[in-house]
Amino acid sequence: MRQRWHVLAPLTGLLFTLGTVLAFIIGGETPDIDDSPQKILDFYVEHHSSQLWAGVVLAWATVALMFFLGTLRSTLREAEGPTGRLSTVAFGGGIVLIVGMLSFASFSFTLGDVADDGLTPQAAQTLNALNSDFFFPLAVGVGTLMIATAISSLGSRTLPAWLAWPALVIGVVALTPGGFFAFLAFLLWALVTSVVLWRARAAGPAAAPPPAPA
């Protein structure tokens, strides 16, 4: 059982990506922050069920992300050696990312849960603004996670270069106004990386070379 989990654990990155995309689809396009308070409230009253489920599914996706982060950290740490500095930084960035994702999940759930239960238009406007612009934890989390992973992988060859270099680009862009697109790219990166790590573990350790002739 332990060996089976060792092989399958990387696929939690795939579950994270699929869960996050599904949450986006369920939630749909929410109101702009400059829409009128009443229009914002009316939207959440009409779509309260979809917002509830979007929050729940996004929260579930972060559970998968936590397991994927554990897999990624152990993979980087094995190659780094005793210090594990960069793997720790990457893991810390992932935790910040999780806080950001759970914040968005909570905002969506709250709007869906109380929209038709006495929520005022002004309160709906405030929560909607947070649900749209509370992006710093995501930006800093993705940026730190990706940059640290890239530097570690480029130095140790833990991940192939065709995954390490895009990780560096995603990390840098995450800290710019293009952070939303960096997050979308991170979802794809996590999916591909999870499959690469899974295939590597499923293949098992490389066969030892034959001894040299005396």
Q: Can you put this structure into words, describing what you see?
A:
There is one protein chain. This protein has one domain (9-203). Helix 7 runs antiparallel to helix 8. It is an all-alpha fold and 214 residues long. It contains nine helices and no strands. Mean pLDDT is 91; it is low at 206-214. It has helices at 2-8, 12-27, 37-46, 48-80, 85-114, 121-133, 136-156, 161-174, 179-203.
What descriptive keywords fit this protein?
9 helices, disordered C terminus, 214 residues, mainly alpha
- Spans of at least 5 consecutive residues whose pLDDT stays below 50 are 206-214
Written as H for each helix and E for each strand, in order along the chain, the element string is HHHHHHHHH
Measured by DSSP, the beta-strand proportion falls in under 5%
For the record, the count of structural domains works out to: 1
Present the secondary structure layout.
Blueprint: H1 2-8, H2 12-27, H3 37-46, H4 48-80, H5 85-114, H6 121-133, H7 136-156, H8 161-174, H9 179-203
Helix pairs in contact: 2-4, 2-9, 3-6, 4-5, 5-6, 5-7, 7-8, 7-9, 8-9
Q: What's the gist of this structure?
A:
This protein has 214 residues and is mainly alpha-helical. It has helices at 2-8, 12-27, 37-46, 48-80, 85-114, 121-133, 136-156, 161-174, 179-203.
